[in-house]
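ARCHIVE CARD
Drawer: 12
Card no.: 0347
Subject: one protein chain, sequence and derived structure
Cross-reference: see card 0346
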Amino acid sequence: MKKQIKNKVSWVGKVDWELRKFHGNEYSTHKGSTYNSYLIQEEKTVLIDTVWSPFAEEFVENLAQEIDLDNIDYIVANHGENDHSGALPALMKHIPDTPIYCTANAVKSLKGQYHQDWDFRVVKTGDTLDIGNGKELVFVEMMMLHWPDSMATYLTQDNVLFSNDAFGQHLATEKLYNDLVDQCDLDEEAIKYYANILTPFSPILRKKLDEVLSLNLEIDLIATSHGVIWRDNPMQIVEKYSQWANDYQENQITIIYDTMWNGTKILAEKIAEGIGLADQEVVVKVFNLSKSDENDIITEVFKSKTVLVGSPTISNSILHNVAGFIHLMKELKFKNKKAAAFGCYGWSGESVKVLNDLMEDAGFETIDNGFKNHWNPDVDAQESAIKFGEKIAKT
């Protein structure tokens, strides 16, 4: 169903209430998502992005109820990923000659995915498209935010920035606007989105934010591709991105572990106790990897100044899910964060050294040789773990 968002700009996307995993199984979406597509009906009619391919036929049918598809003059593909372009093949069967405006990299992406030679019109930052009534679309390349083909599109006079993935969140809602949804949900999903998807590109993002701001565009709406449209103080999310892109951290220490026979679990809890005793201001959070959502934990890592990782020793090394999580942290290229390791062992006891090496390789600064305990921790060992936590808090 078409929903007017400003003057002759409407939302024609899809709310996906059931979505629980995204990017395959790489990203958890506890609150669903939206695939936001927009229709501009000036002298020229423009469709900006489509929806994910499972909803392609539904999207085309709904769009055809709102407008004669032959009246669509231009299509703008801000990003070639399937959740944005998935309905293009179904739509283009009806209007095969409609020009598609996108970046050069998006041409490669769309051809590579759909193997169609549509009428691509390549644009770069600063290029414009006249859509009548004195209004233009201004294109801004957003390379590596988060794909090489990404761009944003700005509608003059109406002052709408179609930002694509930037400033979005995975949040299913019929309300559409940032001031109409639960603010806790919005804040939680916005920072989770940044932490899990955009963190590796923070240096690029800092430069791109400066570039966009230097254009002196008046922005009344930021129309994202997922989640809400920012209309109430839309620049608030730009300000948050500026903070998050600068090696963000809060006064938080996060403890992450897995365990075999609960020895390493006991250490995690006692270390947390020690941190709390030494510093009553710091936020301490403890997560068992096997019982927690890894994307939620990544968000906590993003907020943390120090991360402690624990694993018992197995096969002269560490538990495989702990190793996989450290690899995920390495992919995200966290900066300016400290780390320490801990774990129990029965025989050889290599886990702490393996953890330290992996955390250093992932870009963390190790601040201690770590804490390891032979067999399950007795009363003395638990007291030592508390003291280790106090030491970490003071470091």
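Annotation on reverse: Residues 254-394 form a domain with the Rossmann fold fold (CATH 3.40.50.360). The mean pLDDT is 96.
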